[in-house]
Amino acid sequence: MKILAIETSCDETAISVVAASGGFKKPQFKVLSHLISSQVKLHAPYGGVVPSLAKREHSKNLIPLLATALRELRLYKASSVQHPMLDKIPKILSREPELLKQLLELIPTISVPKIDAIAVTYGPGLEPALWVGINFARALSLAWNKPLIPVNHMEGHIYSPLLEPKTYNLFPALALLISGGHTELVLVKDWLKYQVIGQTRDDAVGEAFDKVARLLDLPYPGGPALAKLADKNGKHPMFAKFPRPMIHSGDFDFSFSGLKTAVLYLVKKLGKVDDKTKAAIAREFQDAVIEVLVAKTSKAIEHYNPKTLIIGGGVIANTALREKFDELVAKKYPNVKLLIPDFQLATDNATMIALAAYFHIFKKKPGPKNIVARGTLSLR
Ligand code: KG4
Ligand code: ZN
């Protein structure tokens, strides 16, 4: 089965086409197209994502990405097929005039592609951004008469490592989800069955990276820039030992805002921060984050005894963090399989949305019929 997936929850416009087979026993995926149009340059001057700009940029980029994906697949065939439902599309895309115009130009000139379903992220994320993807997906689903599968973005992060499966016997699994908006420990009892056992009480890990990067005047996006600086600095002088928030709290919750405040106080106290000190602060901050994530995850492994540990979300693009988790599992939990996505599937993309959609289709768990953007959608 071929799934076309659309992701617009934040500042990446992404479209993928994935071929899937094997069901739950032996899921196999082949990525036929994996396209991401990043808005980093657009948001950089503001030091963060501006929702209204993100929305407009998604509207501009979706059709060019779709056309590229279909060309890559050789599914882009000129034709003058009748699309009886085309009249209904202006209403669906009434809030996205630019997208509507492009769509009405493209669709009548190409034949209906050989795909089996259209998947789209409907939350969590920025609602104005999510709506663009949802309405686009609704329009395509109607024009081409294909089923529409709404997907929770965090489910995408959970299944992202399954593109290259190392094991098929996954459950119960423990998932650590670390992104710009989320920090969660989730018990995945079976396919599509989740229990959130811990989450952040304030900032998400990625958010903390981004905010601390800003305190250190690093370029946007902050997380990767901070990580780069931290990795440059092998040893750090112990003038600054930041807290390890909630490391011994006895539950599986997190808190990162205190860590950010500790950096703020230190930067204020020092006044001028030279490059060497900056690198030392970055390193100590990263060490503190890693220690907390590793400690809490270890506790959860001991408590729930999972078969696999899944780590998903943009922050697992962090090399030092990946190494620490490799080491942890190898040394302390050799019976637990560690599943971490490829770098290009760690940060936001649509391939992971296609993977999650496949499991929904296979389980016949179709999701809500009237799809509405859900900014704070949680895993259930
Ligand atoms: O999953 P993602 O792409 O988007 C959300 O769903 O939020 O995650 C983005 C987050 C950002 O906060 C970004 O700074 C962080 O992941 N991130 C990193 C690294 N690469 C991306 N944080 C630390 N180290 C990295 N190498
Ligand atoms: Zn994400």
Can you characterise this structure?
With about 375 residues, the protein is α/β, with parallel strands linked by helices. The chain is built from 13 helices and ten strands. The strands form two sheets. A five-stranded mixed beta sheet has the order 3-2-1-4-5, sandwiched between helices. A five-stranded mixed beta sheet has the order 8-7-6-9-10, sandwiched between helices. The protein is globular. The mean pLDDT is about 95. 5'-O-[(R)-(carboxyoxy)(hydroxy)phosphoryl]adenosine binds next to α7 and α8.
SSE blueprint:
Blueprint: E1 2-7, E2 12-21, E3 28-38, H1 40-43, H2 51-72, H3 89-92, H4 97-106, E4 117-123, H5 127-144, E5 148-152, H6 153-159, E6 173-178, E7 183-190, E8 193-199, H7 205-215, H8 222-232, H9 257-270, H10 275-304, E9 308-312, H11 319-332, E10 337-339, H12 343-346, H13 351-363
Parallel strand pairs: 1-4, 4-5, 6-9, 9-10
Antiparallel strand pairs: 1-2, 2-3, 6-7, 7-8
Helix pairs in contact: 2-4, 2-5, 6-13, 7-8, 7-9, 7-10, 8-10
The structure holds 5'-O-[(R)-(carboxyoxy)(hydroxy)phosphoryl]adenosine and zinc ion.
Zinc ion binds at residues 153, 157, 179, 313-314, 348.
Biggest beta sheet attributes: 5 strands, mixed
Number of helices: 13
Provide the helix percentage: 40-55%
Element order, helices and strands?
EEEHHHHEHEHEEEHHHHEHEHH
Bound molecules: 5'-O-[(R)-(carboxyoxy)(hydroxy)phosphoryl]adenosine, zinc ion
Decide which structural class fits the backbone: alpha/beta
Trace the largest sheet across and list its strands.
3-2-1-4-5
